[in-house]
Amino acid sequence: MASSPCWSQMAKNPRCFVMLVLTTLGMLGIIFVGEAESRAFFVFGDSLVDNGNNNYLITSARADSPPYGVDYPTHRPTGRFSNGLNIPDIISEKLGMEATLPYMSPDLKGDKLLVGANFASAGVGILNDTGFQFLNIIRIGQQLQYFEQYKQRVGEAIGEAAAAQLVNDALVLITLGGNDFVNNYYLVPLSARSRQFPLPIYVPFLISEYRKILQDCCSSHTHTHSMA
């Protein structure tokens, strides 16, 4: 395979580390840039990392009722599709960082903005038609649009230069792919995607579409760290 601009860019920048784990449960991308103590944290993706955005939506993809949250410190459902903490919570905890708030939360303002934000929405996938049965969810393209809004809000709060530095030094977690298999291929009877693609073709198609999403995410940085 020919070397892409993404990998050559990373080779020139030892401060940028990208790890992509491709599994049938999801495609997980973690980008580490900058020093741990100065990082903001941005989260994009599906139910594996949604920490409450869908609570603010009219959707069937919700985790705001028991037994969700039974082992959370408050013992109440939080919108996380978990009995307690989820992946972003554990990452924040292990790195000694404050947990991010859902982007849809009205509490995401002031100093909380500088911690970062979670844009994830349960039910979404790599493909825009994934999760159609859940009605109103924040698809990955919309999550990236909200990220642009976030940068504007931070720029207004601390200045554009400081906001750009905060974004460029951030930790970014992207988790996608599971719903494209579960809810858009296997569990939907005679799904359009399963009729369109045999599985050996569907997998590389998803990877190709996921690469485009990652490139869009990278291009939203003032100083782009490309990946594929």
Order of helices and strands: HEEEHEHHEHHH
Low-confidence stretches: 1-35, 222-228
Largest sheet: 5 strands, mixed
* Strand segment tally: 5
Structural class by helix and strand composition: alpha/beta
DSSP strand (E) fraction?
5-15%
Distance between the termini: 12 Å
Question: Helix amount, in percent?
Answer: 25-40%
Count every helix, treating DSSP H or I runs of 4 or more residues as helices: 7
As a whole number of angstroms, the C-alpha radius of gyration is: 17 Å
What shape does the CA trace take?
Answer: globular
Walk across the major sheet and give the strand order.
1-2-5-3-4
Query: How confident overall, as mean pLDDT?
Result: 83
Q: What structural keywords apply?
A:
228 residues, alpha/beta, 35% helix, disordered N terminus, disordered C terminus
Note down, in words, how this protein is organized.
Keywords: Hydrolase, Lipid degradation, Lipid metabolism. By secondary structure, the chain is an alpha/beta fold. The protein has one domain. The protein has a five-stranded mixed β-sheet with strand order 1-2-5-3-4.
Topology overview:
Elements: H1 5-12, E1 16-23, E2 26-33, E3 41-45, H2 87-94, E4 116-118, H3 140-158, H4 160-168, E5 171-176, H5 178-186, H6 192-196, H7 199-219
Parallel strand pairs: 3-4, 3-5
Antiparallel strand pairs: 1-2, 2-5
Helix pairs in contact: 3-4
Offer a quick outline of the entry.
This is GDSL esterase/lipase. GO terms for molecular function: hydrolase activity, acting on ester bonds. With 228 residues, this protein is an alpha/beta fold.
